Amino acid sequence: MNFGVISIFPEIFLALNYGIVGRAIQQQLITLSYWNPRDFTQNKHRRVDDRPYGGGAGMVMTYQPLQAAMDAAKQHNPLAKVIYLSPQGKTLTQSLVTQLAVSSGFILLNGRYEGIDERFIDNMVDEEYSIGDYVISGGEFASLVFIDAVTRCIPGALGHEDSAVQDSFTGDRLDYPHYTRPEIIAGKSIPDVLKQGDHSAILRWRLKQSLGRTWQRRPDLLEKQRLTPEEKKWLDEFIAELTINSSTF
Ligand code: 9D3
Predict the structure, then answer these.
(1) CA–CA separation, 217 vs 212, rounded Å?
(2) For an engineered disulfide with 37, which of 53, 65, 72, 106 has Cβ 3.0 to 4.6 Å away?
(3) pTM surpassing 0.85?
(4) Ligand 1 neighbourhood includes 52 CB (under 6 angstroms)
């Protein structure tokens, strides 16, 4: 899969050379190509922005350098879907990411300043995505999130220990607690079940913790799913144990 990146700050994407995405690049599961609008300017000062019609604070990215960068990116990958990362986009979810991961490639358009001339968005953009309801300074960090999340869905991108099967839960259920050595830290031990070597008991404990924590911290996620009778039993047990513990102490 190829990610074409249109950005005036391509150095930000050096972060992709680390970890799982870094390995995916080395394995040639993904390729990245960069198109800097500043390299496509036709004005003496290499300006990529101008003042907004109607006035107000901030600047707007101009059409010409973006279009020239886009033409180059499209020539490189004509089948790519053009994605604009913007606060006005549909919020990215794991379900969307999984669907997008079957595409052959993307051109990621990154805005800076107050945004991009709307006519460019109308003419060139296939889909617009936000990464959540908070303000960041431009599209680049959102693009990093997009590339990381999509790359993880490509077969072969995750190592054996970090299997895609475990990720299949993400998005609708919170993870169970994790522990490693040493066995005691600041007087705190670890749950006995994790030391007893009963693997089906461990799986049940993890499922129960996962359901319990989702119920406590993200009830909105549980409301969207139907639990099996088995899962309902583990959640009821988790809740019952909370009641016991809070009346004991
Ligand atoms: C007048 C209000 N503006 C500044 C506070 C609006 C504004 C313009 C440009 C807010 C953010 C940005 C830059 N953000 C992005 O390009 C962006 C983004 C985000 O801010 N939040 C969540 N997802 C994304 S994707 C791209």
Answers:
(1) 9
(2) 65
(3) yes
(4) no
